[in-house]
Amino acid sequence: MKGWLLVLFALTLKACAQFTVEERFHSCVFTNAPTGETFAYRLSAPQFPRPGVRYPLILFLHGSGECGTDNRRHLKVGLPALLSTLLRQPEPVMILAPQCQTGNWWVKRLARGEDYAMPPQPAPSMEVVLAMVDHLVDACQADPDRVYITGLSLGGFGTWDAIQRRPERFAAAIPVCGGGDIRRVRELRRMPIWVFHGTADQNVDVACSRRMVQALKQVGNRAVRYTEFEGAGHAVWDRAYGNDEVIQWLMRQTRAPVPWWRRLFG
In this structure, is residue 244 part of a structural domain? Predict the structure, then answer.
């Protein structure tokens, strides 16, 4: 019986692999109720959802090169590697991949210097994206204790912005070559965060990530991890997303209380 189950599992993985990234993501439009603004996004969800089951949700924020209105370009960078690794994991997940427009970025300005101060109000695109996440949780589709966020380049800055504005919403984060407000990290002192950057990045200085990691450690965050790729340039996201250890780490994180026996015995 066990042998048949293994064969069935292998056939399922093979069938999943035959779908392209675009085919695995449904094209959707979200309407923000307070403003009436519409926003294009893609959503990948379990093909056969179980009634009453809430699934982990990963919010993926693309980079500046993928901005637009076609609801397609942002599927081509970073997301294929992330999806491929997720398909190797036993647990089904939901992936929310919105697309922001040029001129309406995830952030109002990039946190390139140590003097950066996060604006009081989020960028319009970030406000809508956070509303999307809330909607999926409120609709009993996403597990409120297992909402994750990751982003690359511009999306890395957006990742920091999102978790600094709504730390209570996210269970863990993976910012790739981004940066944030070093003065507003105290709210993140208990959040598991795995940061990635290349030392030879000519687009976003590696100091942006280094500052955030150092600031987190100074406020007592023992759950922060930092991977720096020596000699690597800007495009390090596939090395992060293609690593099974990274994704397995992400999927273990939860905001729900962990039983004492699990803390002791893993």
Answer: yes
Query: For 194-249, how does the pLDDT look when each residue is reduced to its tens digit (9 = 90+)?
Result: 999 999 999 999 999 999 999 999 999 999 999 999 999 999 999 999 999 999 99
Neighbours of 91 (CB within 10 A): 11
* Class of residue 17 by CB neighbours under 10 A (exposed 0-12, middle 13-18, buried 19+): exposed
Evaluate if residue 10 carries a pLDDT over 60: no
Domain that residue 66 falls in: 23-255
8 inside domain: no
Contact present, 62 and 152 (Cβ < 8 Å): yes
Rounded-to-integer distance, Cα 244 and Cα 165, Å = 29
Read off the pLDDT band of 264 (50, 70, 90). Answer: low
User: Distance between CA 24 and CA 236 in Å, rounded?
Assistant: 24
**Helix or strand run (H / E) with residue 109:** none
Residue 94's alpha-carbon distances to 40, 45, 78, 157, in angstroms, are 17, 5, 16, 22
| CATH number where 104 lies | 3.40.50.1820
Task: Write out 156-211 in H/E/C secondary structure.
Answer: HHHHHHHHHHCCCCCCEEEEECCCCCCCCCHHHCCCCEEEEEECCCCCCCCHHHHH
Has residue 10 been placed in a domain?
no
**Most trustworthy range by pLDDT among 13-17, 36-40, 176-180:** 176-180
Q: How many domains does the chain have?
A: 1
Q: Say how far apart CA 41 and CA 23 lie, in whole Å.
A: 14
Let me know if residue 3 belongs to a domain. no
Q: Distance between alpha carbon 179 and the CA centroid of its chain, in Å? A: 14
